[in-house]
Structures are given as structure tokens and as C-alpha cells.
Records
---
Amino acid sequence: EPHASAVPCGRACARAPSALASRLPWEPQSTTAPEGAAVSQYQGQSMELPDPVRQRLGNFSRTVFSDSSRTGPEYNEGPDNEMVSSLALQMSLYFNTYFFPLWWVSSIMMLQMKYSILPDYYKFIVVTVIILITLIEAIRLYLGYMGNLQEKVPELAGFWLLSLLLQLPLILFLLFNEGLTNLPLEKAVHIIFTIFLTFQVVSAFLTLRKMVNQLATRFHLQDFDRLSVSRGDMRRVRSCIEEI
């Protein structure tokens, strides 16, 4: 009879690690994954930021955007079901995507019209700034879409940093530098671009704060679930030992 009671108990003990693994989705499920699955997983992550960059941006986000006044997770918020993506930020990114080609064409046309009257050093500076803005904008919009739609903190933090530290100062330089002799169309498109960037910096900051706090709450809840499962496993193992 003791052997008969030990069999279901042993099965319960054997099922405990699998139940624990199912409750921890952030941990790797298996170390011996098939080669095809590994290749598909690599292809799915090929367009993401490199791991060192993601780690640095994640640490930066937790330092800057976390709410230090929170003493613990708020369980009534429902963090697993709440969407933290910003609709206003996404609409701004959508219209920004269509506005940027108009800004680029207008800037090139105005530069061609006034190129002969600009000093040589301003010619070099303006061409360099337009090239930098074009390259930064492509990366910035991609990170904004990825970070906001898929709720990825490192990508959205990179979008916020590019907008605040690079793109906005470059546009303000083109807008307020009197030596560039801006034409009316240039001023108009620069002002619109500045409004886009200012709104995106503010909305991305608020979205990042909300996203980081939600992830912190989710981490605490998962840690609590893991401790609860571990205690249940210890009780089950203890009961198995007593029955044996």
C-alpha cells in the first residue's frame, strides 16, 4: 500500500517543475530547442535592437521613468490586461510619416533657391544637417512605431532620446539661425516639424513612465506567483515524503 500511494505522489512531484515553468513565461522554456525553431526565433528578432543597446536603454528607462513614489504594485490596475500604448503618440507618428517627405522636398527646394547667396561654411552646415535629419528621422520613426505599438521600453526610450537630443536641436538650429536667411515656406515647415517633435517628446515621456511602472508591477506580481508556486511545491514534496 505505501508503494501505491507513492506513485500518484511521485507524479504530482514530477508535474511541479512543469507547472512552475508554465507560470514563468519570461524564462527560456527549453535548452534543446529544434534547429528550425532557433532559426525562426533568430529571424523574428533580426530587426530588433542589439542586446547591449537594449540593456542600456532598459536600464536608462528604469532610472529615469520609474515612479519613485510607488511603494509597491497596485493590484487593482489589472496590469496584464491594460494597454499602455499611446493613441495620441501613434497618430502623431502616422501624420509625421506623411509630413516628413513634404518637409524634405521643401527644404531641398528652398536650399537650391538660396544656395548661391549662402556663405561657404553655411552651405556645408545646412547640407550636413539635412542629411543627418533624414537619417535620424528614418531610425526615429521606426523605433517609435516598434516601441509604442509593441510596448517595448528600449525602442521607445531610443525614440525619445533621438527626438529630444538630436532631432529637436537640429530643427531648432534651422529655424532660429538668422544666418540661413530662411524663406517663408522653410519657416512654415520647420515650425510644423518642431510642433510634431515637441508633442512626441512629451507624449513619449508620459507613455514611458506608464509603461515602466506597469512592467515593474507585472514583475512584482510574477515574482509573487513564483514564490507562491515554490511554496506549493515544497508542501507537495513534504507531503510526498511523509506518505512514503
Note: DSSP finds seven helices and no strands in the chain.
---
Amino acid sequence: MDSQEQKEAQPFTDIFDEDEAERSFLLSKPTCLIVFGKPGSGKKTLARKLAQRWNCIFIEASEVIQMNIQQGTEYGLKCQELLCKGESIPEEVVTEMILQKIESPEVAHFGYVLTGFPFLSEKCMTVPQQIEKITNLKLKPDILINIKEFLAHHDCRYLIEVDGSQEADHVFEVGKMYVLSSEEALKKFVLNPRPYLLPPMPTCPCKVFVFGPPFSGRTTICNLIAHNYKA
């Protein structure tokens, strides 16, 4: 009988009482999203746009590190000290900063859009352990977005995959490459490569894009390539 009276008192799904609606909104869980994807798939760009559109807090490793350094937190001072020594920031420290940000009051109010976590390298935790961290969050994600097979749409002739766990100097020694301007030039090169290999050789501008997960050595490789080819 009581439940029937309650249904009659609240016959609509939406709350039309202003005070009750405001109270319900303030007590409700904020929207939380996680964007997954391979390196270079555009997950960071998408996550940032979603955060702006949904008025959520954008959470990503490099952003969290920069924020802690600017605010002079304990983690920020530790990161600054390591970077000044030329050392990389351990993943366990980055993980702690990300989890601390997720538990902050502003995220509890606005919600979050998280990307770049779990880490791929598994240096401090395996991917299943990192996923367990996510599932144990107080603010669990409502939506998971997985950007799939971005690299599959690239022409394999222009895509070089290297092992980011190797030293930068070793990764740089990928071997000799010939960049040709067209299919016609490729056919001529295959038939007789000598005109292309003997001086004077053309030095047309070439655009190279180096991408990879955070702290994988992208900047170091870019500097080595630019220095070698005077770009």
C-alpha cells in the first residue's frame, strides 16, 4: 500500500520540484569517461574535446605532471628533481598522481575524461593490475571509448614501427631508407637504382612524424633525426 501511494505521489520519471531536482543533481554521480587507443590514434585530442564539451576534468599523464610541477606539490618537486637530473619519471609516481587527481574535489563535482592509462610498458604494474585500479575507483567510468586500428589505415611503405624499449641510439639505427616522390619514381628506382644513388642526389623536403606512448623517447629520436638530416 505504501509503495503504491509513493508511486501515485511521484507519477513522473523527471522531478519537477526545483529544490528536489537540484538536490538530486548535486547527489548524482558526475559523468566519467576513459578513452583508449594505440599511440598516435588521436585519443588525447578526442579526450580533450570531450572534456571541453561535457565540462569534465581532462586527465592525462603529461598534463598531471605539469600541473603538479606548477603547483609545487610533493610529487611535482620530485618530478622536477628527476627531470633536472635528466632522468625519467617512474610510472608508479605518474600513476599515484593520476589517481590523486581522480580523487580530487573538482573531479568529484565535474567528473573526468581519462586517457593514457593503463600504461602499455607494464614497468610498475601489469595491464590487468592497472585495470583493477580503474574498476576499484570510487568514481567508476560510465563510458569506455576504444579507438581501434588507426595504424591499419596507413600505407605500410610510410610507416616504420620500432621497439621503444631500446636505447634511443639503437632505435635511430633503423637502417638506410629511400624516400621516393611517386609510384613512377619507385618503378624507375627498382629497374635501375644507380641514378638515384649517385651524386648529385636530390634533397627534397621530407616530413617525418614520430609518435609513441609518454616517456618512450619520442623527443630524443626526433632530435637525432633532425640533427642527422639537418632538418
Note: Residues 43-54 form the longest helix (12 residues).
---
Amino acid sequence: GSISPRTGEDVNQPESGGQPIQICLSLQYRLPNTKALGTVYTSFGSTFHQRYTLIARNTISNVAQTFTPFDFWTKRAELSEAMLRAVQTSLQHQGLVEVTQLQIMRIDFPQQYEDMITNIQLQVQEKSVKEYQQRVLAVLNNFEVLRATNEATITVVRSRAVQAATVLQNQAHASALVMFQSAKANATEHVARTLEFTESQVIGYLRLKALSSHPSNRTVVGLKGPFASQ
């Protein structure tokens, strides 16, 4: 059936004394199968069910006043359990019956109050969505920073690799030049030693070798007063 209690004090409206609500629930109980059954009929007669309903309504109304309006949304399981325990105790003591089940079917608040709660919930959800969006944006920004850092690191590594390759290439060229010059010197020394050249003859040999490498039709060799031929 439907019960019309009030909730406990509303934290948003402390002077309201709670909010009026409508609770629709189902209740199951078991009559005793002992001599207590006779006591039930002796005490309540054929109207025992109406008596149990009244006891249950009063008990549930008392329990409802211990919960704030917001609890009816956020603590529904706790609310249902508290009502079940309270009704079990009261009907056992006052009616000698065992309550086996209590189920809340529906809870209705005044439309104005439900609209207010709905708006509050929408604001909370909107705040949560904005916070989530901010976290996503922060993650994306961090990703961009990491990407830029990685690209900068790659650029530095490539630059260092090119620099190292250039240094190695220059060193190789220098080493090759040194080896070439050393080979030329060794070859000249071998020729001079084989032909038993004097120092002046070696110089003349090198001069002739150089000239043969760069031929010209305007070259005079071995004259103290050189002249050019036409």
C-alpha cells in the first residue's frame, strides 16, 4: 500500500522539518502455527490484518524520519533494510507474526522538490563531465609535450650522428692523405736509392715528375735565363 510520511530534516532546508513523501511498498508476514495463533485471534479477531497494516505504517513513518530526503536517492538499500528490521521487531512484539519480506516499490516527492533534486543532479553531472574533459585535455597536452620532446631528441640525435659521421669521414680522408704522402715519399726514396741519385738529382727528378703531371707548351726547363717559345 501507499504511506505518506515525512523525511528527516533537509540539509538544504533545515527549517522545513523534512519533506512529505509517498512510499509504495509490499510487505509479507507469516502467522504463527502454534498456540500463539489463538492469541492473535483473541487480541485482534478477524481484523488482525488491518491491525498489522497500521503497526507497519506507523513503524515505517518513524523510520522515514531518520533519513534525509537525499538519502532516499543515495541510500535506498540501507533505507529498505532499516524499515524491514523495524517492522520485523514491531510486528513480532505487537502482533506475534514474523515479517519475511519488505520491498519498496516507489518513492514519490512533491514535484517541485523532485525538480530541484533533478537540477542538482544535472549540475553535479555537468561538473563531472567538465572535470573529465579537463583531465582528457591535460592528457592530450602532456602527449603533445612528450611528442615535441621526442621529436627534439630525435633531431639532436640525428645532428650528432651527422656530425660524428662528418668527423669520421674527415679523419678517414686525412689518414688516406697521410698514407698517400708516405707512400710517395717511400717510392721516391726507393727510386733515389736504386739509381743512386744525389740530393740535387732527387730534387730535379721531383721537379720533372711534377712538370710531367702538369704539362704546358710554355715551359722551359734547365736554363738559367729561361725564355718562352711561341
Note: The domain at 2-109 is CATH 3.30.479.30 (Tetrahydropterin Synthase; Chain A).
